[in-house]
Amino acid sequence: MQKRIFIIFLFLFTCCLYSQVQEGYHIHSLSMKDCLVEAIRNNLELQIEGFNPKISDFDIQIARSAFDPIFTTSFSASEVETSTAQDNNLTNQNFKWDLGIAKKNILGGSVGFFYTMDYSKMYDIAPRPNRHWTQGVSLRISQPLLRGLGVSFNETDIQLAINEKDKAYYTFQNKAITVMSNVAIAYWNLVNRIANYELQRKSLELAENLYKITLARIKAGSLAAADILEAEGNVAYKHDNLIVAEKNIRDAEDMLKQLIRPLDVHYYKNVHLIPTEKYIFKEFYVDFDKALQEALEKRPDLQASKITLKNASLSTEKYKNLLLPSLNLNASIGLQGSEHSFTKSYEPLFDGDYLNWSVGVSLEVPIGNRTARSRYMQSLMRREQSVTGFKQMESAILAEVRIAVRELTTSMRRVNTAQRTRELAEKQLANEENKFRAGIIALYQVQDTEEDLTTARINESNALLDYQRALVKLAKAKGTYLEEIQKYGISLK
Fold this sequence. Notes:
The chain is built from 15 helices and 8 strands. By secondary structure, the chain is of the alpha+beta class. The chain folds into 2 domains: 2-60 and 158-311 and 382-488, Outer membrane efflux proteins (OEP) (Up-down Bundle), CATH 1.20.1600; 70-104 and 109-147 and 326-364. Helix 1 runs antiparallel to helix 6, helix 6 (156-220) runs antiparallel to helix 7 and helix 6 packs antiparallel against helix 14.
């Protein structure tokens, strides 16, 4: 009698286990869309990677700033004392002020407009000092003729920065695909764990039903009293399985929480997640060639690798130019006025009578030029390294897509097989239960059949989980997962 009371209590406790766990907790029902939105908003990995495209914007501005106008000004003062042949002291004071603005052009040269004012005052034995004012305006041009010449060379840094921003965004997209696919897999894992818990609960109910049948047959005298021990042991075994299943739910729950709300301690401690979506199985044909073509066109990590290769080529061309000697053309043209008074000194500027000009070239040839040669050779090696890296990534993508296609195809076949196996197991258990009630077979035979049914149901649930995982993995392998989640109205832009 005590054993019967114990079994009944055990069964009731187990049936209420999942609901009792919820006491003191908030229930949060989540769709797949909810999880993905939460991840975009809260996932720390995604937030960290999301800074890089914004940071790259400033690199572009830095590169473009090389063509910003530059304002320059300078002022100097000096005094020199000398003696003449007549032993007289001669003092010469000089004040000079320069003002100008210059701008680099896309050919590598610079153009600037400058104003110069020079004032000198000389003291000797004369009663009044000798004053002299000089003012001038000039247009100055400097243009490289070899090293540093050309639009492509001078815009290389800008193009590199633009490409790096695109690369940063592709890298961000790749991280988003990884995070979103992990969220989806974690979501389906939780769905699976809850489904398996329910299957274990049903298995316990079947075990309890067998216990009741056994007890009735013992009362009827068709079974020995000792046979109740086997039924009781089976109930206890099923109860243990249910405890493990409930623990698996909590583990899967925490994995999903980590992805969608990593910093919310209250969420971890006081919230239980209930997925609202169920498995949807649809068998279809997967074209490997089409999937591979999509991957080669859309994989953001492959696009980032293409940019790395492109930038390596740009850098090589830049360093090739730096191998050339430095040959610069320098020219200036301007007007100048010189008088004893300030006002009269600038009048010739407007008359245009005092035109000054100069033109010249400068040549610089580093002996050995080891720095430029070494950098050029480095750039060649980096370009070859980028080519090899790109080929390696293409090979890895091919293998990843092939595996993902095979995994999805296999999972669909497994679902069909698991469903058929489960249906047969259900029919077999019904037959065995009828035979047991009729006293044709022993209890252990029914228990074995029930265990087979539970295993078949769990295998079906796991096969459906693998199918959902395979769908996510294939979309990730093709680089199309962000496109596929747009059905939820979700966009990273």
